[in-house]
Amino acid sequence: MKIGLDVLGGDYAPGSNVEGAIQAQKLLDEAHRIVLFGDEKATRADIEKAGADPSKFDYVHAPENISMHEHPTKAISHKPNSSIAKGFELLKKGEIDSFSSAGNTGAMLVGSMFSIKTIPGVIRPAIATNVPKLKEGFGVLLDVGANADCKPEMLNQFAILGSIYAEHVYGIASPRVGLLNIGEEEEKGNNLTIATYPLLKENNKINFIGNAEGRDLFSDHADVVVCDGYTGNVVLKLAESFYVVTLKKGFEDSFFARFNYEQYGGSPILGVNAPVIIGHGISTPKAIRNMILLSRDMIASKFIERIKSAFN
Amino acid sequence: MKIGLDVLGGDYAPGSNVEGAIQAQKLLDEAHRIVLFGDEKATRADIEKAGADPSKFDYVHAPENISMHEHPTKAISHKPNSSIAKGFELLKKGEIDSFSSAGNTGAMLVGSMFSIKTIPGVIRPAIATNVPKLKEGFGVLLDVGANADCKPEMLNQFAILGSIYAEHVYGIASPRVGLLNIGEEEEKGNNLTIATYPLLKENNKINFIGNAEGRDLFSDHADVVVCDGYTGNVVLKLAESFYVVTLKKGFEDSFFARFNYEQYGGSPILGVNAPVIIGHGISTPKAIRNMILLSRDMIASKFIERIKSAFN
After folding, report:
1. Where in A14-75 does DSSP place strands (E)?
2. Residue A147, SS3 per DSSP
3. DSSP 8-state symbol, B173
4. CB contact at 8 A, A191 and A237
């Protein structure tokens, strides 16, 4: 298993990324190799400086970086030696089994869709995120930003993508799928959710439990909550801001602690031909470490094969 | 000034409503009368039992109640002697200056739109809610549920409705208006927000400051945040659930305390020909009291006249 990591992406790169890779490597089996995309010489030196052994890692020399504010499509095509472009190049060739980066989200999406491409049958990939549950553990919310406008058929597919992710990567048996909506009853909602409800109801690949309202997100109501990427992104950023407030106010609590993105490392792009994970721009070593472990879990669970067979 | 209040609507009615009305009456000028819609004899008895003077209130005998789960349109037409139907009847005739209820939200919306009607020029009314600001005070978020699907022109009008409300009822000078969106840049968003942005930019009746992301809602970024009613309702219920969590966890804080709907009493329906306020189903006496005081402030600020002249 070869787990690709962008060393250059993120606000604290490369230091945080190298440190996270070193931490993750200690937790991996011998057969699992982390492949580092960045300036090879500098990365080896950084690893050595951190007191670790550079030979425990593989390297792909990709010294250019796509910054946070570059135009994704242009950057990928104009910077073939960037860590993200190289990552997708090798992912497409099958020389690595997953790729993750805390860098330019748009470039990660563009790379996913135009390089490794969407799985046949999937209309559009979705970005999933973890949602902490009040009681314990996590649920899954998607889409949180890949598709600002969605069709009912897309939401119906997100339900399948999210279910398989929750079941096989997070070990939730027969995950309960809810449709993010503004009422409990089937006939409630906007045009999109009203048209989506019957599709979800008839979808025998999922365990649909009906609508989930804003107040149900953190309760034990549903394991997977499906919505369009505009709403999901608003919800995600709102929830993050609440977490930041509790931090600032010094409210320590295991539930609020689970909002910390460091706990799960990153948000996968579901529906493309390989595991791709987007890390938070401010990824710490712990976040990078967990992003690598999530990559491993996605590969080990044969997540991509399961998605392919569901959409076959 | 005659302030109409539904005595029968809400989970804790009539006790909570009567108690709230008694509290509010003590804070009103002599010229301000609270008009109570419910069973007149029972209401008078309740007021006396609570140790207050029934002659300080006006009464409209409306003994029927529209319950939370009744179909709004049917209930209003089939129950002409219900407190909500009577309230709108008198509001339309100008015999009361405002009407508020913690009862069936749908019936309040139907009454607003089909009885007192939308102000000429306003495409659709919107429900506004208070949003606590981290630093101090409140902002305004709308629409939070009246219109699950919106057109750009509607959002552009919500911006005007929200601005006038924030300025004249809450005393925020030149309120900053933000468009709830998923990025800072003008070109970001879904079809609706992308089409709405230029309208807001060119709208010289408002102080538009650009996009507001989910994370900006509680910051000092904008005073009025505009969105479609689906998104607003999801955001509102999510925020409420956070507040409930902080309560359960025993986190006391002045910011979180401002999430308590009791603090502001209710959510006005903006864009109709009279002040109408919807209270929370679980309205306590304090919430009812503040809903009455908000009614007074809406009447006193000549809010309706200001909206009319803005849409003239």
Report:
1. 33-38, 58-61
2. coil
3. S
4. no
Chain B residue with minimal CA distance to A184? B69
Along the 312 residues of chain A, how does pLDDT read in single tens digits?
Answer: 999 999 999 999 999 999 999 999 999 999 999 999 999 999 999 999 999 999 999 999 999 999 988 999 999 999 999 999 999 999 999 999 999 999 999 999 999 999 999 999 999 999 999 999 988 889 999 999 999 999 999 999 999 999 999 999 999 999 999 999 999 999 999 999 999 999 999 999 999 999 999 999 999 999 999 999 999 999 999 999 988 888 888 888 888 888 888 888 899 999 999 999 999 989 999 999 999 999 999 999 999 999 999 998
- Which 3 state secondary structure label does DSSP give A12? coil
Out of A134, A149, A237, the one facing B213 most closely (by C-beta) is A237
Q: Which residue of B has its CA nearest to A247?
A: B251
Tell me if B214 and A228 make a contact (CB, 8 A cut-off): no
**Residue A269 token pair:** 């792009």
Residues 6+ apart with CB under 8 A from B156: B196, B199, B200, B203
Q: Among partner residues A228, A233, A255, which is closest to B245 by beta-carbon distance? A: A255
The Cα B100–Cα B296 span in angstroms is 11
C-alpha span between A68 and A204 (Å, rounded): 40
Closest CA to A41 of A77, A80, A11, A7: A7
Report helix, strand and coil shares of chain A as percent, to nearest 5.
45, 20, 35
Degrees (nearest 5) of the Cα angle B38, B42, B45?
130
| Cβ within 8 Å, pair A218-B245 | yes
Q: Among partner residues B182, B233, B237, which is closest to A230 by beta-carbon distance?
A: B182
**Peptide bond before residue B39 is cis, with ω within 30 degrees of 0:** no
Instruction: Give the E-state strand segments of A153-218 in sequence order.
Output: 176-180, 207-212
Do B103 and B116 contact (CB within 8 A), yes or no?
Answer: no
Structure tokens at A35: 């492949």
Task: Give ∠ CA B280-B286-B287 in degrees, rounded to 5.
Answer: 20
Whether residue B182 and residue A242 make contact (CB cut-off 8 A), yes or no, is no
ipTM: 0.94
Tell me the C-alpha to C-alpha distance, in Å, between residue A36 and each of A44, A50, A58, A60, B11.
10, 15, 6, 6, 60
CA closest to B150 among chain A residues: A190
Mind telling me how many Å the CA of A260 is from chain B's nearest CA? 15
- Picking from B217, B230, B245, the nearest residue to A182 by CB comes out as B230
Q: Among partner residues B145, B180, B229, which is closest to A234 by beta-carbon distance?
A: B180
Distance from C-alpha of B51 to C-alpha of B46, rounded to nearest angstrom: 9
Give the B-side interface with A, CB within 8 Å.
134, 145, 148-149, 180, 182, 189-191, 193, 213-219, 227-231, 233-242, 244-246, 249, 251, 253, 255
Residue closest to B291 by CA, chosen among B145, B102, B14: B102
Count Cβ–Cβ pairs < 8 Å, chain A vs chain B.
115
- Name residue, tokens 């879904």: B190
Write out the two tokens for B201: 């930019």
State whether B241 and A217 contact (CB < 8 Å).
Answer: yes
Residue of A nearest to B240 (CA): A215
d(CA A277, CA A286) in angstroms, rounded, equals: 15
**Do residue A255 and residue B249 have CB atoms under 8 angstroms apart?**
yes
Q: Is A307 helix (H, G, I), strand (E, B) or coil?
A: helix
